[in-house]
């Protein structure tokens, strides 16, 4: 069984590790939110000719391997083809737009520092009018990611901290047991 001093040391180390991990977490409450600086085509654009690619200029360097960008026509058919590529702060995806109508771009961009930007934009081709307004409650397309290694490590550290705190609470004698020890002649300070 660990002595009370050893348990306190373990608890303090666990708390320090958890606090440091929380400060280093990219999901910390004070983390800066990434932004889409500009798009091509622009949100709400009425184009006379179809674009050959979609570009999102970001506030940081995007990671194309972790990012998603979908382009759908008014009927919901995917018109984006090819892989996402990044150059500097710009994320690109080729599209093959055939016909006229409204098109919706849905994106989830993960920057190289772990920050994320999610959103939608729309444009029209050949209609001479901006795209129809999207309903305010329209949900963006969903997708799944694997387990984020940093968050998995932080979860393990948090579990260790909780375990350490519980050990400290269990091993710490309460005021009644200290009083009983004094009455029985055992000195609780010497233990």
TrEMBL record:
It comes from the Bacteria. Pfam families: CopC (PF04234). The keyword Aminoacyl-tRNA synthetase does not apply. Keywords: Copper, Membrane, Signal, Transmembrane, Transmembrane helix. This is Copper resistance protein CopC. The keyword Nucleotidyltransferase does not apply. InterPro entries: CopC_dom (IPR007348), Cu-Rt/internalin_Ig-like (IPR014755), Ig_E-set (IPR014756). Residues 35-125 form the CopC domain. The chain crosses the membrane at residues 152-171. The lineage of its organism: Bacteria, Bacillati, Actinomycetota, Actinomycetes, Micromonosporales.
